[in-house]
Design brief:
The chain has 404 residues and is of the alpha/beta class. The chain contains 13 helices and 17 strands. It folds into two domains: 154 residues, Aspartate Aminotransferase, domain 1 (Alpha-Beta Complex); 231 residues, Aspartate Aminotransferase, domain 2 (3-Layer(aba) Sandwich), CATH 3.40.640. The structure holds pyridoxal-5'-phosphate (PLP). The site of pyridoxal-5'-phosphate (PLP) has 15 residues, from helix 4.
Length: 404
Amino acid sequence: MSSVAAEKTSPIYPTYNRAPLAFEKGAGVWLTGTDGRQYLDCAGGVAVNSLGHAHPHLVEALKAQAEKLWHVSNLFEIPGQKRLADRLCEASFADRVFFTNSGAEALECAIKTARRYHYVNGAPERVNILTFSGAFHGRTLATIAAGGQEKYLEGFGPKAPGFVSLPFGDHEALKRAAAEPDVAAILVEPVQGEGGVRALPLPCLTGLRELCDERGILLIYDEVQTGIGRTGRFYAYQNAGGADPDILATAKGIGGGFPMGACLASEAAGSAMTPGTHGSTFGGNPLAMAVGNAVLDVVLDEGFLEGVRDKAILFKQSLESLKDRFPDVISDVRGTGLLMGLKAIPANTELVAALREAGLLSVPAGDNVVRLLPPLTITPDEIREAMQRLETGIAALSQHEKSA
Ligand SMILES: *Cc1c(COP(=O)(O)O)cnc(C)c1O
C-alpha cells in the first residue's frame, strides 16, 4: 500500500496531474498567474469559460441574484428555470428541460430518460445504450460505463450494465448492434472532445437519425463540450440538417464558469419522466439560472454566433500555417468552430508545457492532441496574439523551422 502514496504533500485527492501554476484573477481571455505572468487562456476551463473571465454581464447577473435569493429547492417554483428552459427549447429541438449541476449528471438524466421512455411505451426490455470508442461522458459509475474506456473503469468494480461500445466509424457494427431488440438509444458526441477533437462527419449525424427512426431507437447527443456556441452554432448538431436528437446533454459553457448543466428532451421523451422519477437538490437553483440566462443573453444575441464562425476561420487558417511551418511538431489541425485540436508529434503534454512556458494555456486530449478552447469572445487581435505565443511554444520543440 505504501508504494502508492509514499509522500503526502496535500490533502487533496491526487487524481489530477496539475500544472504547477495558480491564478490570481482573470479578465476576458487573460489570466494573471500568482507568478505575476499574463496567460492567454485557450484552455477556457475546458470549454467552460464560454465568455471568458469576469464577463461584466455575468458578474452583474450573479451579484444581483446573490443579493436577492440563492436557493429554495425544487419543492417550489423557480421562475429563472422556466425562462432558461423556454430559451433553450426555442434555440433547439427540445420541448422539455431538466437542470443539473454538471455534465455527468446531465448524461445520467439523458440515460434515465431514454430508458424510461421505452418503459412507459411498453418496451421495458429496451435498456441498452450504444456508444462509440473514444467517447467521454463523465466520471460517474454510469458515465464511465457509457464512455467504455478501460483506463476510467479499472478498479471500480463491475461495469454498470446496459452500455455497448462500438468501434468509432464502423457502420456495419452499428447496423448490427442497432438491430438488437434491447436497444434504447444511441449516445454520441457530435465532436469527441476528450477523445482528441474527433468530429463525426455531418452526414453521419443525419444517418444516425434515420437509423434511429427505422428502429424506434432514441438519439442522444452529448453536447456537454460542443454546446452553447462552441462550434459556431448554438448546438453542434445544428451544423447538420435534419439531425435533431430526442435527448441532449448540455453543461460546461452554459454556466460560463458557474457549475450547471441540463438535459434537453423532446416532448415524447421528457414527458416519460413523471413526478418522482428524478431529482436534484441543487439543480436549477436561482444563482445558476441567473448566470445561465445571462450567458444566453450574450450567446443568442444577434450576430454573436456568426462572429464565432468568422473568428474560427481565422483561427483555423492560422493554425494550418503553423502546421505547415513546423511539420516536425504538428501533424494535423482539427476541429469545428472554436473547439480546435493540434495533433502533436512530441508528447501532447510536452507541447502543452511548452505553450504554457510561452504564455498560452491549452488542454491535452486523447490521440496525442492538444485542445484549444478559447473564450467565444476572443477578438481577432487576441487570436493573432495567441498565434505568436503558439509559434514561440511550437518553435521551442522544433528541430528545424521550414521557411514559409
Ligand atoms: C466534460 C464532459 C462531460 C462531463 O462533464 P462534468 O461536468 O465533468 O461531469 C461529459 N461529456 C463530455 C462530452 C464532456 O466534455
